[in-house]
Each structure stands twice: as C-alpha cells, then as structure tokens.
Write a structure and sequence with these properties.
By secondary structure, the chain is of the alpha+beta class. The longest helix is centred in the C-terminal third of the chain and has 28 residues. It has five helices and 27 strands. The protein is 18% helix and 41% strand. Keywords: Cell membrane, Disulfide bond, Glycoprotein, Immunoglobulin domain, Membrane, Repeat, Signal. Its main location: membrane.
Length: 411
C-alpha cells in the first residue's frame, strides 16, 4: 500500500473510538524523531512519542519509497524483520532487525489528524571496511634496484580510505625523479609504488582500510629484496697470545638467506667442536653476524681464516689473519708503581723519578764512571810509591829493594 492511499484511508475511515470520543486536545509529538546510524547486520529502532492521541492512530511510513510499514500495532509490509511495539501510553516504536543496505532512507511517524501531523528521521546504514583479497597484492620478491607496486582494494560504506605503513615503523621512501626523494611514515592511496628499491626498504608493509566504522582492517604484505652476499670484516688482523681465547667476526648481508661457513686459508672447512665454536646473530632480515671462537689457541691455530657466504644469486668471502702476540715482562723498578708509595704526592713521585734517573746516569753505562775512579786511584798510589822508593834508595839501597818487593805484593 502506498503512502497516499494510506492517508486517504485514515482520513476516510477513522477508528470507532475517534468517532465516539471527543478530545479537548490535539495530538502532539513530545520529542522529535531522531536520526539513526547503524552498521549493517545490527538492529535499528525509531521511537515516536505522542501525547493526547485520543482516537487517532499512528502509522509508520518509509517516506522515500512511499511505502506503508505499519498502522497502529499492525505491520502492513511483508518484511518479517519489521515489528511495532506500544507501551500502552504514548510511545510507539518501529524495530528493524538485521539492518540491510536497502533499509537505508527516510522514515516517517504520522498521526491521522486533519491536517495530518508527522515527523521524519533518516536511517543511515554503514558497512565496516573489508579487504578485497582477490584484487589486493600479496608478498613480493624484487631485485635490488628494481620496482614494486603494491595494490590494496577495500569495500565498505562510506568508501574506505587506504593508508600504507611499514610494520617496523620506519619511513616509506617515495622517489619522484632522478634525484627527488621523499620520506614519510604513512602514504595514502590504493597503490604504493616503490622504485629503485634498496635492501633497507625490505620488510613488511601494512595496507590499512578505515571509514570511521569500526573495526578498521589491514593486510600484511612482505617485500623481499634480493641481492648477492656482501661481507664486511671489522678486524682483518687479530693478535692473541698462546693458550687464550680469541673471537673472529664477519658481518654478512644477503637475500635470500645465505649459507655461511668458515675455512682455513688452505681450504679446510672448520667444524664446531670443543675448541672451535661457531654462531650467527641475526641483526635484521638480511644482516647476520658470523662469529668464530677459538679456545686456548695453539701454534697450529695461527694463520689465515676465511668467512664465506653463498646464496642463489652469488657468493662472497672475507679474510682474517690471526697472529701470535708475545707477552713482554716488565722491567723491575725501584717501585712497582710510584702511585703506590704511601703518602706520596705528585711532587714526591717526580723527585723519586729524578733520583732514579741520576742513579742510572752515575752507575749506568756499564759502570764507566766507577772504573775511571778506580783507575785514577791505582795510578795515584803507584806514583806515590815510586817517589817513596826513590828517596829510600838514596839512604839504603838494600832496604829499598826489600821494601819495593813488599809493596808490589800489597798492590
């Protein structure tokens, strides 16, 4: 039944109560009919409050379709999801269960007065966003320096907005020309273009669809950038004393994931055991730190080592030379540490150092000064003795001979 026919019937055939009952007041709407917004699949309710209804009747009409839904407490339409309730006083309710998009539109609460009284409200049906997987990109593999285009499609009402983010929170790089480059934490649009892609752009990208109707939805797309291995050696020359532990390190970048191992310079592959411990630490999706620990180094351990990385695109190697480091004993000092002298200050320490240096200058140089003094003393003694013998010889030649022999024995 259409709206115009309903109005005509209400006016032409009023209820029996309206004929016999005289009301001093006209029907009046207490509250305006409120607009309703509901997600598809939920229930919606319109409430119409009428005072002084008397013998008049309330009808519910879908105004944009000019369709009569219910009169008083009777549902006219064949839609089984619609129902009408009355609280036996002044409140009339139109209930719509499991709302569909076709229910969206203008609704009217009407009283069959002359002229008729009515109020309208709008039912907005919204649909949460949903990813259209058949039209959306999946995981991608691209060579370094190449390009990748990620597409994300979503449906919903209102039309969802697409936003791109990196899962790790890093910036998205957009290159607009030979030298043009912009960075941002999020990009809007159904398509995300990555050009001249580098290994740092490898990772998971999130396509997020939202339209202010919860919940927002997202899809994760993994971008794998392929390149041949690259090895960086922090220390190419490493020294270690005998019977100590030493660690050799190589930093590897490779994608797809590479096979990494160690060799001696003669090509002998190193296998983990009690003396050789090998491990790998993943620093990112493509970066790995290789370590080789040699326990209690022996003479045979010194020499060249190679760290080797191979994947489906290529291979690389780095070299490290391990040499024996000799531990030198410290020369004994007057004090092991000048700072250990109790109560000494900087001036005292400096005085001790100067004294040691003077001692070394005097008694150093293979005792040269001491030998010179000893030689002078002997020469002086000999000269005095010669003079004494000369005088004695003048007095007694025999006595001088005996005395010279005694002195020669003494000296």
């Amino acid at each position: 039944m259409c709206y115009n026919d309903f109005t005509f019937l209400l006016l032409l055939f009023p209820s029996s109560s309206s004929i016999t009952t005289v009301s001093a007041f006209e029907p009046d709407f207490v509250f305006p009919l409120e607009n309703v917004t509901v997600a598809q699949g939920r229930d919606a309710t319109f409430t119409c409050v009428v005072n002084n209804l008397g013998g008049y009747r309330v009808a519910w009409i879908k105004a944009d379709a000019k369709a009569i839904l219910a009169i008083h407490e009777h549902v006219i339409t064949n839609n089984g999801r619609l129902s009408v309730t009355h609280n036996d006083f002044n409140t009339w309710t139109l209930n719509i269960k499991s709302v569909k998009m076709e229910d969206r539109g203008q609704y009217m609460c009407q009283v069959n007065t002359d002229p008729m009284k009515m109020q309208t409200a709008f039912l907005e049906v919204v649909i949460p966003p949903d990813i259209v997987y058949e039209e959306t990109s999946g995981d991608m593999m691209v060579p370094e320096g190449g390009s990748a285009k990620l597409v994300c499609k979503a449906r919903g009402y209102p039309k969802p907005k697409i936003t791109w983010k990196r899962e790790d929170g890093r910036e998205i790089i957009a290159r607009t020309g030979p030298h043009g480059k912009t960075k941002s934490h999020q990009v809007e649009g159904e398509m995300l273009s990555l050009t001249k892609i580098t290994r740092s752009e490898m990772g998971a990208y999130l396509c997020i669809a939202s339209n202010s109707v919860p919940p927002s939805v997202s899809k994760r797309m993994k971008v794998q950038v392929h390149f041949h291995p690259l090895i960086q050696v922090p220390n190419q020359l490493v020294g270690a004393p005998l019977l100590t532990d030493v660690t050799l390190i190589c930093n590897v970048e490779a994608s797809p994931k590479a096979i990494n191992y160690w060799q001696r310079e003669n090509g002998e592959m190193i296998i983990s055991n009690d003396r050789y411990l090998m491990s790998e630490i993943e620093n990112s999706m493509y970066a790995v730190q290789m370590t080789l620990v040699l326990r209690k180094t022996q003479k045979s351990d010194f020499g060249g080592y190679k760290c080797i990385s191979k994947n489906s695109i290529g291979d690389a190697e780095g070299t490290i030379r391990l040499y024996e480091m000799e531990l030198h004993k410290k020369k004994p000092n007057r004090y092991n540490n000048y700072d250990d002298i109790n109560g000494s200050n900087d001036e005292d320490n400096e005085a001790i150092r100067s004294e040691d240096q003077n001692d070394e200058s005097i008694f150093g140089s293979n005792g040269r000064l001491f030998k010179d003094a000893q030689s002078n003393l002997i020469n002086s003694s000999k000269a005095s003795t010669s003079n004494f013998l000369l005088i004695v010889s003048f007095i007694s030649p025999v006595f001088s001979v005996i005395l010279s022999k005694l002195l020669s024995i003494t000296l």
